Amino acid sequence: LPPRTSLQPVRRGNTIIASNSSAVEAIDGTTGTFIWQVTLEQILGPEQAAESIRAVSSPCVVPGGVVVVALRNREDRLEAYGARIDDGGTISWVRHLGEARGASWLGLRGSPATPVEGRGRVLWSTDRGSVISLRTSDGAVEWVQDLNGPGRAGLRDHLMKDLASGTSLRRRGSRLFASSPGSSRIHILDESTGTPLGVIAASSPGSWNVSTDGDRLLVIEEAEVVQWSCVAGSVPRFQWRRELPAPLDGRGADLSPARSGGRWIGCGDALLSITEHGDPITIQGLDVAAHSLTPLDGGLLASSGSRISLMTEAPDDGDEETRRMLDALSGYLDR
Fold it and tell me: Which of 45, 188, 208, 305 has the greatest CB tally within 10 Å of its CB?
């Protein structure tokens, strides 16, 4: 896959479903036994000579299956298609989502953004300034919201944004939070209708994330971390700004909510934990450059390309065998 692509597997019951460069596959989570495969050819049709780009997103879990987005190029245009794959590996629908002309695959992530599950719908960011809502049952397009206006996000914006290290669309309850290359704004939308609910005017935003309850939004701006209040029904407002402590410089950083209400910030080979008020708690080293942080039950997954590091909270008690097993799998998160 192109180096800017980041694909993540998902779990549905005891089944692990993952995308690769040519297919979506399911395996048994206990035995590793192959269950089913859906190829890009089944979603997009037979490959034609003029096509040099074919890619598929990470799967999004929905009731009864998963939804993916696939891309292909035809001459000077890049086309996007959404597809639902049922639990048995059967494609129940494929829908054309639109196309972009004169676009580079490098500037469009190398593989499409992962769809986000909504309430009876799937939301997808084109990463070119638009958000699309699809009905889960049949793939019908419910609404399209243009964040920036046509033609404003070009190749340079995508390269400057470094999309592989961040997420451009998140859902919290009935609200969506969306950003796009070429814009410093983070938009808040109604999940059901796409209606704009507010805008956060960040300054040179890099990575960003939203608290679990959706009331606070944290943004990395160069070497600083900034928090905004975004309580539903109120106008977003600035709360605080803190400089990142050395050795964190903000480049290639990612954010993840912590169970305590604070945040984890990964940057390079360092991991910072802060309180909900932005005060540093701990800084520790990582054995991988943390381009992506994924919260787990009682732990945190840091990944960079094909390398991952699993960290768990050090147990207060437990037998020596359990401790040795955790040491073999991961590092401990400082408290």
Answer: 208
